């Protein structure tokens, strides 16, 4: 029965994949070709070439990986394992074609190198390319956008060895846009930026939900928004300051998180990993958060055992003494850190968690503690978010009879803990909820 349902699901996904292919294939050739033909008639087409690009060699054989993206494009629609993954991947590919074509119309550019005549099989492949591809659809490179989006899908479904091989091939595809003399460097950079923005804006996993922010969260949102606007204006005003648009985008997205989008802006899964797109887009903020953690944790111990094998501490650098990790950070990526069990329940930094979040976090912590001898409950520094959850866990498990006792026990183990009046209030509310559950 289970095998039959699995097969039906696969057949259904293949049918949907075929539908997406029927939609996307003609749309790509129609929109791309029409925009190319139109731009060829314009008299305002410029070019952006960096001097060192003239040293890029023409390598005819790289037309093979260049063309291979068409085959990989089709295959990508049939390797998805869920309707959500397929739908969002299809939407990403649709957005790629539309956004790229808009870019070609808004900023018309022309490739300026004259490609040498090529014979043999490689020459035939170039001839097929030239039949529909005029040198006007340049920035952002749709080839680069698709290379990024397709690689994300293939790496999701391949083992470690195959993932390395596919990564090498997709890198070769990306380089081939230069070595086949199809694109200039600005096209590659802009294509990568657009690709990351598309994959970030249309995540394959998770659901973004807006939640009414607290007054304190809105203050933080305002500060990050102001910072983002400052970088944005500087990037637009300073000559060659375009790089400043990166921290501007990162800070504005974090501001959106505090303004109601919450932890979804970090795209962190239950295993502690941020999506690759989020790591790229938010890198300036993430780097700042990491440097801040390193600075403020200089005189703070990694962790302190509070009760029954449950330790309170900061986000570990590489190794930890505990068997399991309960990660409450939204802004840090697990990466190569090893633990017998790593479970994440992301909470926004500097914001007091609500009772529903505390309730869920305590339940997950209790389950981890029952399965493992030792558990590290961590946030950035192990001073507020994690301390609040551990205090609530002490109350839930009956290891403390009141909020005052729970906080006193935690501070006796980790004196640097910072719990404000707002933290204590939410703990009191949680404690009263527990008492109501116990009372007949």
TrEMBL record:
<feature type="domain" description="Tyrosine specific protein phosphatases">
    <location>
        <begin position="356"/>
        <end position="425"/>
    </location>
</feature>
<feature type="transmembrane region" description="Helical">
    <location>
        <begin position="93"/>
        <end position="114"/>
    </location>
</feature>
<dbReference type="InterPro" id="IPR029021">
    <property type="entry name" value="Prot-tyrosine_phosphatase-like"/>
</dbReference>
<feature type="transmembrane region" description="Helical">
    <location>
        <begin position="220"/>
        <end position="238"/>
    </location>
</feature>
<feature type="transmembrane region" description="Helical">
    <location>
        <begin position="188"/>
        <end position="208"/>
    </location>
</feature>
<feature type="transmembrane region" description="Helical">
    <location>
        <begin position="134"/>
        <end position="152"/>
    </location>
</feature>
<feature type="transmembrane region" description="Helical">
    <location>
        <begin position="57"/>
        <end position="81"/>
    </location>
</feature>
<feature type="transmembrane region" description="Helical">
    <location>
        <begin position="164"/>
        <end position="182"/>
    </location>
</feature>
<dbReference type="InterPro" id="IPR026841">
    <property type="entry name" value="Aur1/Ipt1"/>
</dbReference>
<dbReference type="Pfam" id="PF14378">
    <property type="entry name" value="PAP2_3"/>
</dbReference>
<dbReference type="InterPro" id="IPR000340">
    <property type="entry name" value="Dual-sp_phosphatase_cat-dom"/>
</dbReference>
<dbReference type="InterPro" id="IPR020422">
    <property type="entry name" value="TYR_PHOSPHATASE_DUAL_dom"/>
</dbReference>
<dbReference type="Pfam" id="PF00782">
    <property type="entry name" value="DSPc"/>
</dbReference>
<keyword id="KW-0472">Membrane</keyword>
<dbReference type="InterPro" id="IPR000387">
    <property type="entry name" value="Tyr_Pase_dom"/>
</dbReference>
<protein>
    <submittedName>
        <fullName>Phosphatase PAP2/dual specificity phosphatase family protein</fullName>
    </submittedName>
</protein>
<keyword id="KW-0812">Transmembrane</keyword>
<keyword id="KW-1133">Transmembrane helix</keyword>
<feature type="transmembrane region" description="Helical">
    <location>
        <begin position="244"/>
        <end position="266"/>
    </location>
</feature>
<dbReference type="GO" id="GO:0016020">
    <property type="term" value="C:membrane"/>
</dbReference>
């Amino acid at each position: 029965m289970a095998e039959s349902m699995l097969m039906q699901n696969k057949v259904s996904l293949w049918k949907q994949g075929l539908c997406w292919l029927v939609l996307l294939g003609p749309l790509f050739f129609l929109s791309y070709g029409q925009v190319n033909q139109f731009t060829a008639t314009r008299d305002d087409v410029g070019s952006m070439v960096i001097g060192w690009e003239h040293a890029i060699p023409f390598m005819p054989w790289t037309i093979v990986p260049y063309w291979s993206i068409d085959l990989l494009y089709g295959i990508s629609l049939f390797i998805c394992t869920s309707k959500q993954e397929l739908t969002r991947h299809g939407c990403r590919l649709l957005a790629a074609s539309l956004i790229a074509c808009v870019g070609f119309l808004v900023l018309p550019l022309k490739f300026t190198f004259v490609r040498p005549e090529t014979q043999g099989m490689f020459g035939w492949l170039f001839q097929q390319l030239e039949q529909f591809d005029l040198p006007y659809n340049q920035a952002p490179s749709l080839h680069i956008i698709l290379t990024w989006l397709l690689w994300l899908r293939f790496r999701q479904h391949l083992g470690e060895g195959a993932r390395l091989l596919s990564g090498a091939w997709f890198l070769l595809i990306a380089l081939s846009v230069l070595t086949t003399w199809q694109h200039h460097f600005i096209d590659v950079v802009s294509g990568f930026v657009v690709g990351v923005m598309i994959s970030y804006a249309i995540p394959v996993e998770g659901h973004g939900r807006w939640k009414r922010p607290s007054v304190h969260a809105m203050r933080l949102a305002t500060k990050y928004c102001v910072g983002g606007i400052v970088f944005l204006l500087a990037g637009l005003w300073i000559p060659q300051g375009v790089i400043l648009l990166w921290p501007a985008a990162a800070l504005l997205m974090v501001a959106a998180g505090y303004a109601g989008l919450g932890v979804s802006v970090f795209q962190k899964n239950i295993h502690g990993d941020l999506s690759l797109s989020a790591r790229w887009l938010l890198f300036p903020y993430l780097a700042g958060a990491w440097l801040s953690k390193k600075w403020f944790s200089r005189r703070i111990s990694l962790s302190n055992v509070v009760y029954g094998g449950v330790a309170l501490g900061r986000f570990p650098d590489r190794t930890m003494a505990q068997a399991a990790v309960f990660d409450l950070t939204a802004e840090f990526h697990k990466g190569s850190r090893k633990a017998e069990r790593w479970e994440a329940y992301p909470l926004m930094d500097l914001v007091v968690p609500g009772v529903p979040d505390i309730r869920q976090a305590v339940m997950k912590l209790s389950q981890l503690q029952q399965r493992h001898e030792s558990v590290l409950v961590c946030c950035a520094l192990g001073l507020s978010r994690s301390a609040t959850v551990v205090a609530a866990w002490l109350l839930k498990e009956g290891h403390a009879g009141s909020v005052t006792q729970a906080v006193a026990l935690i501070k006796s183990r980790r004196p640097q803990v910072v719990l404000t009046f707002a933290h204590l209030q939410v703990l009191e509310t949680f404690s009263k909820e527990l008492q109501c559950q116990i009372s007949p």
